[in-house]
Design brief:
Distance between the termini: 32 Å
Bound molecules: adenosine-5'-triphosphate, magnesium ion
CATH topology of the largest domain: Rossmann fold
CATH superfamily of the largest domain: HUPs
Strand content: 15-25%
CATH class of the largest domain: Alpha Beta
Number of strands: 15
Number of helices: 14
Shape: elongated
Helix content: 40-55%
Length: 393
Amino acid sequence: MTSKVLIINFEEIYLKGKNQKIFIKQLIRNLKRKLKPYRDFLSFDKAHGGSYFIEIIKEIPEEILDEIIDKVRKTPGITGFYVADTAGITMQEIQEKAVEHVGRHIEEFESFAVVSKRINKGVNFSSMDIGRQVGSIINETYGKKVDLSSPDFKLYIKVRGKYTIIYSKIIKGIGGLPVGTSGKAIAMLSGGIDSPVSTFMAMNRGLHITAAHFHSVPKTSPQSIEKVKQLVKKLTDYQGEIKLILISVLEIQEAIAKNTDSRLRLILLRRIMLKIGEELAKQERAKALVTGDSLGQVASQTLENMKATEEATNMLVLRPLVALDKKYIIEKAREIGTFDISILPHDDACSMFTPKSPETKAQLHYVEENCAKINVEELVKKALEQADTQIIS
Ligand code: ATP
Ligand code: MG
């Protein structure tokens, strides 16, 4: 018999009407893939209504269980889950396990209630009996009082077919939608604070992400690429495996610097990044590009400049951070674990290339005029030929 079981809830997906089945199927597929390294310990049950069971089928070291819990917690689509103890289906076994379970939470409450359910009708006691008998032994053992109307602590007990599950504390998940249920997108990932957050937010809304990073090695240090790999590695906590495409824009920057109005450098480079992104999207069968733009945050992120940049592509450009304050973005970066990596010093492809007085209100026709001075198609083609694709897991 199993010693513990993870009980996963999916409220938002659960509300999705007729798509529900597809969403749950994808979520389970994602979970199985993420938990593959631990499969010897686990047995995946079928979904029951709004929840899904993963049984721990053999003795498991505490730190491995913690790793599994962390992976589940970071899986998009999961609003919350319980780590339940399991017991046999006799009253004595249920009482013993309930006392042991409550013992781990004893500091957290004064009053409690037992919420019981008997799914297995073959046992010789009712769900009321469970509530009464477990309630009284907890009261005797720990001196805590029963309060059915507004308890500090709820102990859930469900007698199922072969075993009983006993649980209390919900572990909050990150919610959102299962990766893959919204299709695919290319996330433009720099080494900064913003784009790892926008990439995360896209994933958390059900997009399966391929990351694209543009660099100017050897003009910039190879460490900048290492840093991006670390960021992508962190983001695999959420999506699982991620494809990272590294693209040199050195030659493109040289062509821009040599032939165009220096005030437009950044916009022109961004336009070409989007064009390359569009080609990658075709390769990957992705339907959108994702960037970390936030309105007004830096010179390149005015409405005029966003428009002049976006005109370079027909693709849908998603900007999950567009209306968020930097403070919030930083908080989110901390929460998802990318902040400490993002603030490591690095020189990025753009900063060394930034003109002294960049244009903040670019006129589209003037941008296009400058763009025509370089052979964009040829440069894009060459950059793509030299792309380096890596799978990070
Ligand atoms: P970030 O913190 O993500 O670097 P930022 O505030 O520095 O963003 P910009 O440098 O203007 O803003 O970049 C805007 C967006 O363009 C980034 O969020 C990212 O999506 C994309 N981008 C910029 N530089 C690169 C790069 N070298 N590789 C890939 N994408 C990039
Ligand atoms: Mg940046």
